[in-house]
Amino acid sequence: MTRVRRGYTARRRRTKIRLFASSFRGAHSRLTRTITQQKMRALVSAYRDRGRQKRDFRRLWITRINAVTRENEVSYSYSRLIHNLYKRQLLLNRKIPAQIAILNKNCFCIIYKKIIK
Q: What whole-number distance in Å separates Cα of residue 45 and Cα of residue 43?
């Protein structure tokens, strides 16, 4: 069996990994074994935090909507607002009312009054 020269393939593989880790600090961007470990760790964190980001933004939107609804009426809350939205079959996600609540409170108040009635 003939001998296989692997230099080109191995170098290409390492270069590809190095390009991924070029912005890392210290040995994390220089040593091949450390780069590989850091790449795996970075990809795990990215995957985990994509789900976490969705969760965090949903919490933020709920907080914003709740704050604006409580400004208008003391006894009214976010949960009642969402309940009434579903009762009236107005299917809005939480992102849009949160944006309206922050950017244009008067418009949000109009929507809010229509939902209550």
A: 5
- Domain boundaries along the sequence of the chain: 8-116
* Long-range CB contact pairs, 15-21, < 8 A, 24+: none
DSSP 30: T
Confidence of residue 51 (pLDDT cuts 50, 70, 90): very high
**76, pLDDT greater than 70:** yes
- Asked if the 8-116 domain carries CATH number 3.30.450.20, the reply is no
Q: Report how far residue 99's alpha carbon sits from residue 53's, in angstroms, rounded to the nearest whole number.
A: 17
What's the rounded Cα separation, in Å, for the pair 3 and 89?
Answer: 71
